[in-house]
Structure formats: structure tokens, C-alpha cells
Amino acid sequence: MPMPSSSPGGPLSSDRFFFSPCTTKSIMEEAKTEKSKAAAATTTTTRDSFYHESITMAMSSSDPYQDFRSSMEEMVAAHGLREWHSLQELLQCYLRLNEKKNHKVIVMAFVDLLMHLMDQQLAAASVRYRDP
After folding, report:
1. Angle, vertex CA 8, rays to CA 6 and CA 14, nearest 5
2. Checking CA distances to 64, which of 7, 93, 102, 121 falls within 20 to 30 Å?
3. What are the OVATE domain coordinates in residue numbering (predicted)?
4. What is the distance of C-alpha 59 from the center of its chain?
């Protein structure tokens, strides 16, 4: 059986995560006190917030690079992530949720996403400077 390629174009099995802002209906969640719910609502974003609020799913992919890239772009858009610490948190979450064999592809997709975000900022800045 041939070994799967670890390049962006090769097939890999990996875990993806999806963030659901909805509250859960689990018994454990309902058991929380109102005080802890209020404290959780006022807590600022931490390095582990994406990790703790996400759901992992095992997936097979013929193009994991594009899948990770698209997933990261969706997360950036959904949460309005633009600051470096938020983007780092997102990367850390992807790395924690996925096996080490997928880390190279995740980092490559993340760097591509950063380049895309920088291009968007430069394009927006050049439009502002051209229009008096």
C-alpha cells in the first residue's frame, strides 16, 4: 500500500474543527451555575478559546492544503480575526486539533492565508491613498 503524500496536493486524513456559537443542551452544561456562566461570558479571548469551543471531525481529503486554507479563511471571516494574537490563536488551535503529520500542511495554509490578508490590507490602503 503506498504511503500518503504529506505535500499539499496529496491525500491525507485529518481532523478539522468547526466552531458553533450555539449553546449546548448537555446535562453538564445545564449544571453550571449562573455565576460561572456570567464569568465565562465576560472572559476575554484566551489562547485556548478556539480549542475549547470547537468540535473535531475526522475527514479524508484529496487536497488537505486547500481544505485547511478554506477552513481557516472561513474562521477569519466568521470571527473578524485581523490581529496577530488572534491569528496565532487560530493556528495553535489547528495544530493542537490535528496530528503532527498534518502540521506542515497547516502551517503552509496559514502562511498563505497571512499573505492573502496582507494583500487585502495593501489593496485597501492603496485605494485610500489614490482616492482624495
Report:
1. 65
2. 121
3. 57-116
4. 16
CA distances from 30 to 18, 26, 42, 48, 98 (A): 22, 6, 18, 22, 29
* pLDDT of residue 87 exceeding 70: yes
Cell 448537555, residue?
A: 26
Residue range 28-63, pLDDT digits in tens: 454 444 445 444 444 444 445 666 777 777 888 899
Looking at residue 122, its pLDDT comes to: 87
Phi–psi pair at 60, nearest 5 degrees: -105, 140
Spatial distance between the Cα atoms of 72 and 43, rounded to a whole number of angstroms = 23
